[in-house]
Amino acid sequence: MNHMFKTYILVIAAGYIPMAAFTQQVSPDLQALKNWTITNRSATPIIESGRKGIHLNEIPGDGLMILKDADMADGAIELDIKGSNKFQQSFVGVAFHMQNPTTFDAVYFRPFNFKSDDPVRRTHTVQYVSLPDYDWEKLRNQFPGKYEQPVNPVPDADEWFHAKVIIKGRHVAVYVNNAQKPSLEVERLNATTHGGLGLWVGNNSAGSFANLTFTPDKAGQAKGMAAAPPPYGNNPVAGHYLDVGDARLYYEVYGSGKPIALLHGGVYGYIDEFEPFISRLSAKYQVICVGTRGHGKSDIGHTPFTWEQRAEDAYKVIRTVTKDSVMVLGFSDGGHAALKLAAQHPELVKKLIAIGAGDYPSTGPHNAEQYTPQMLMKSDSAFFAGRLALMPEPNRWAEDLQMMSKLYNEDFISTETFSRIKCPTLVMAGDRDDYNPIESMVNCKKAIPNAQLSIIAGCWHVVFYCNFPAVWDTVEPFLSN
Q1: pLDDT at site 353
Q2: Predicted confidence (pLDDT) per residue in 333-349, tens digit
Q3: Alpha-carbon span 376 to 380, nearest angstrom
Q4: 124, 91 contact by CB (below 8 A)
Q5: In whole angstroms, what is the distance from residue 313 CA to residue 322 CA?
Q6: Does the pLDDT value for residue 127 go beyond 80?
Q7: How far is the C-alpha of 167 from the C-alpha of 221, rounded, in Å?
Q8: Measured between alpha carbons, how far is 286 from 166 in angstroms, rounded to an integer?
Q9: CA neighbor of 67 nearest in space, from 259, 240, 186, 198
Q10: How far apart are the C-alpha atoms of 236 and 50, rounded to whole Å?
Q11: Spatial CB neighbours of 408, under 8 Å, sequence gap ≥ 6
Q12: 196-208: average pLDDT
């Protein structure tokens, strides 16, 4: 039963939020409204299902309830949340590191997608945003599936659920209903280290909140705190270089056990895109992460890019690390390199996973690629500025992109390679992959003697950003069995 009390309304203009740092766990009283600043909502104290909390009403525009005079840095935010099963009218979450009421990071949920019959909608259930620069629409268009995921376990849309958001440096992990594994893990898109804390509801959305706590990270030992991941792709502890003649290749090694090599995607890709894989695989395996020519800290070199060259570069790095046979996981550009590597060195590769890399015959048809610095900087200047900062020769970026475009336009990989692969192989893609239609994945699978095919519903090219739980549930047993 709902017990409603007096309703309060307070609207303020955007401005600086004065703050006092949290140094120990705090449990703010959501019904002590004098301690809160409320924007574009009315706040009604409630007692519901044994929870003493607050209800924010449903009106157009986003709404906030900001804790006054508060400052949070790294730590764990926990709270109970209740939205509703109203399509496009239930966006409920928490804002953190607030600089002012328009500049903050947030994690929010779309309860109306929790149990949707549409598999695509279910992948749009928990969302990270960094406002004002990165709203949900920009993130979905530029990085589909990376900053929004399904939740697991799946709550009822009209019932209370518990959320925990862990912030550790640039890393954010979101857990639902005390799950052991996060539903969403992302790297934050700004460099703020602290700021205000608030409740957030989206356009035309109401929401109820209770049992809010914040536990600061004291020397990384706060209760429930996950350690920040290493800076994958730029880690001086795990990073190494190998001179392969005309280029120095950068690679990183994590964990111990049977070796597995990871080969990343092209243009946008680099070692860091494998963060969800590395953190899990390194608990059981020795993970060898190869930086491809022209990406991140690896040199560009002076010879044309080819799939054979990609494979031979990977072979040399792997053999520098281990003399054993290895498992290989490649994505996109790295998936095609992995297929070529398995064909050329059957003694090396004992299991192969190729994600987003299908049949690419010389007969086509193929889209002509022509990447330029102007094009990529226009698509996301902050992202590619970070990539350029890692490159040994950033002045050669335009040349590097020309070489990659030539590779994608003129070099091909098809049955002449696939038929020579002897090891067990898992071929995987999303059913909405713009680069690899299902037919190309089926052709690839059929041409490899010992292959299986996995198609992830509702996902585009970067399938492990779209639905990592489904990807992992397929990859992990393939590697283990």
Answers
A1: 98
A2: 999 999 999 999 999 99
A3: 6
A4: no
A5: 14
A6: yes
A7: 13
A8: 27
A9: 198
A10: 50
A11: 266, 366, 369
A12: 96
Report which residue type is found at 444.
C
**Domain annotation for the chain: domains and CATH numbers:** 3-216 (2.60.120.560), 239-480 (3.40.50.1820)
Six-digit token string for 307: 């799939």
Rounded Cα distance, 174 and 109, in Å = 11
Q: What are phi and psi of 104, to 5 degrees?
A: -170, 165
φ/ψ (deg, to 5) at 166? -105, 120
- In which residue are the tokens 């706590």 written? 213
pLDDT at residue 310 is higher than 70: yes
Task: Give me the half-sphere count of Cα atoms (radius 13 Å) on the Cβ side of residue 322.
Answer: 21
pLDDT (0 to 100) of residue 466? 86
Residue type, 135: D
> Residues 206-233: what's their mean pLDDT?
70
Which amino acid is residue 147, in one-letter code? Y
> 404 phi and psi, to 5 degrees?
-70, -40
- Taking CA 339 as the corner, what is the angle to CA 333 and CA 342, rounded to the nearest 5 degrees? 140
* Cα distance between residue 451 and residue 75, in whole Å: 44
Place of tokens 């283990």: 480
The average confidence (pLDDT) of the chain is 90
Over residues 15-73, the pLDDT tens digits come to 323 334 444 678 899 999 999 999 999 999 999 988 999 999 999 999 999 998 888 88
Residue showing tokens 């990859």: 475
C-alpha of 204 from chain center: 28
pTM of the entire predicted model: 0.61
Determine contact, residues 208/81, Cβ cutoff 8 Å. Answer: yes
